[in-house]
Design brief:
alpha/beta, six-stranded antiparallel sheet, 12 strands, binds flavin-adenine dinucleotide
């Protein structure tokens, strides 16, 4: 696919390490909620350093939004993104991604793995179809939870948080395990959407299978 330059309109922090980047939306750019794009920075030596980032805006919005966890300790693209400001440019390459909405089910995300679900839940809200969808969101601490208020408003009791490095009222503590899955997923044969770091994904898939479920999994490794 040809490269498209995207001028940054807004770049700001939405948590201590997560950036929200709003860019203009060229008319020919189209995507399905849950999909991502290969993105690089339009700056000397960075043009060919492509990384995958998910669209967190909706196809109908007249802007594009990306929600990006930055790793200042790695000498990579996300560290460089921290230097950018309004009117700097990103380059959009291919659009791809295996997560799209199919049926009502349980979404399980680890950290920035929630990004495909942001656009999907925004789309479901727009269509008034949030229904009984559930989000299980695993993070290290409560400060890491992306769009906590939005998910609380959208999902109410169907928004479940689990923190591995903080004990806090209203949040489960520890890592997701079989007991936790059994308690929080009423029907293990429901549609599961899974996105996060590799070890978390491998662990959860194994746990679901051990419990006799996990036959319908739509997933993307971050
Ligand atoms: C389809 C898809 C969609 C995605 N969407 C999003 C999104 O919307 N938002 C988001 O935040 N992320 C998203 N990701 C993840 C995102 O692509 C990576 O976090 C990003 O590529 C990191 O880029 P980076 O250049 O900063 O670091 P990297 O390219 O990961 O690393 C740069 C260098 O740091 C070193 N390094 C790598 N890993 C580690 C480590 N664990 N510890 C220490 N050093 C390390 C290596 O030397 C490496 O060369 C998505 C991933 C996929 C596959």
């Amino acid at each position: 696919m040809e490269q498209t330059k995207l001028k940054i309109e807004i770049i700001e922090n939405i948590t201590h390490d997560v950036l929200r980047i709003i860019t203009e939306k060229p008319k020919h750019i189209n995507f399905i909620p849950g999909q991502a794009a290969e993105i690089s920075i339009n700056k000397n030596v960075w043009e060919d350093e492509k990384r995958a980032f998910t669209f967190t805006s909706l196809p109908g919005n007249d802007y594009l939004e990306f929600t990006i966890k930055a790793y200042p300790s790695r000498n990579g693209v996300t560290k460089e993104l921290l230097q950018l400001k309004k009117n700097d440019e990103l380059i959009l390459h291919d659009i791809f991604g295996s997560i799209t909405y199919k049926d009502e089910g349980v979404f399980i995300a680890g950290g920035a793995g929630v990004t495909p679900f942001i656009s999907i839940f925004r789309q479901l809200q727009l269509k008034n179809k949030i229904g009984n969808n559930k989000l299980i969101f695993a993070n290290k601490t409560s400060a890491d939870v992306i769009h906590e208020e939005m998910f609380k408003d959208l999902l109410g009791k169907n928004f479940i948080n689990i923190l591995s490095e903080e004990k806090k009222d209203g949040y489960a503590h520890g890592h997701i395990n079989e007991e936790f899955l059994k308690t929080n997923i009423a029907d293990l044969d429901t549609q599961i959407y899974l996105c996060g770091p590799d070890p978390m994904m491998v662990g959860i898939e194994r746990q679901l299978k051990n419990l006799g479920g996990g036959k319908l999994i739509i997933k993307e490794k971050f």
